Each structure stands twice: as structure tokens, then as C-alpha cells.
Design the sequence.
């Protein structure tokens, strides 16, 4: 099923500035210095075989990392494959939410996932009770 997008409530699909501002906020909120954050990103990416940069570079450089966090720099945008590593190091899925927002999606954490699953199962049980009650009246 395709969701019809509203012309009046539509956020911009150009999320570059918002994404970079969000990422910079995650770094600040992490309690790590930029150097520590970068070192942890490189270590995690290396451990899981994720390439943070194009080309022959061995890891993400501070210069590129700074450009990714600079909202005024429109030429250096992190690849989507980088974001899971970034989010893990920063302890926040906020950058993924920035990406999901314009299409009406929402990123939820484990607690909300469990609550959503519970609500779906509750609705199924409620419907089953309704059907059972109707069938019982026919007996």
C-alpha cells in the first residue's frame, strides 16, 4: 500500500542540513571528544568491515568527519552505510529518524517495538473475542 503524501504537511526531502546538525548534536551529546568519537567509529567499522570512506583510505579522517558535521558544507555528505556505525557510537538513532521523517516513517527503539507488538497482539485477541461472542450467540 502506497501512502499519499500531503502537499501541505510535507517536510523537505533535502535533509542534508538537518542531518548534519543532528549528527553534530549526537557527537556533542555523546560525552566523547570528536577524536574519541572518530576513533570509536573507525574501530567499529573495521571490526564489521564497513568502509567509511571511498577510495583507498584506511579509515575516516578527522577532516572528512568535520565536513560531515558542518551544516554549511553541502559537498561532503556521509553515506547511508556509515549511519549505523555513527548511531551505535553516538548511542542515538536520531540521524536515522531524520532520514525516515520525510517519507512519514518513524524510527523506534526496542521498548517501543515491544509495545507496538503487544498492541498488535492485543488487537488480534480483541477481534478473536468479538468473533467468539458472535459465534456463541449462534449456538
Sequence:
Amino acid at each position: 500500500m502506497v501512502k499519499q503524501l500531503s502537499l501541505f504537511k510535507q517536510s523537505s526531502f533535502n535533509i542534508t542540513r538537518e542531518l548534519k546538525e543532528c549528527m553534530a548534536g549526537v557527537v556533542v551529546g555523546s560525552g566523547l571528544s570528536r577524536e574519541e568519537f572518530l576513533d570509536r567509529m573507525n574501530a567499529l567499522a573495521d571490526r564489521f568491515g564497513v568502509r567509511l570512506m571511498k577510495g583507498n583510505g584506511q579509515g575516516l579522517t578527522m577532516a572528512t568527519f568535520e565536513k560531515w558535521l558542518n551544516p554549511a558544507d553541502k559537498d561532503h555528505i556521509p553515506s547511508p552505510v556509515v549511519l549505523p556505525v555513527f548511531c551505535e557510537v553516538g548511542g542515538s538513532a536520531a540521524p536515522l529518524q531524520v532520514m525516515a521523517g520525510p517519507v512519514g516513517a518513524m524510527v523506534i527503539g526496542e521498548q517501543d517495538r515491544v509495545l507496538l507488538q503487544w498492541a498488535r497482539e492485543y488487537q488480534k485477541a480483541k477481534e478473536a473475542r468479538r468473533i467468539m461472542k458472535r459465534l456463541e450467540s449462534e449456538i
Observations:
- The chain has a mean pLDDT of 91.
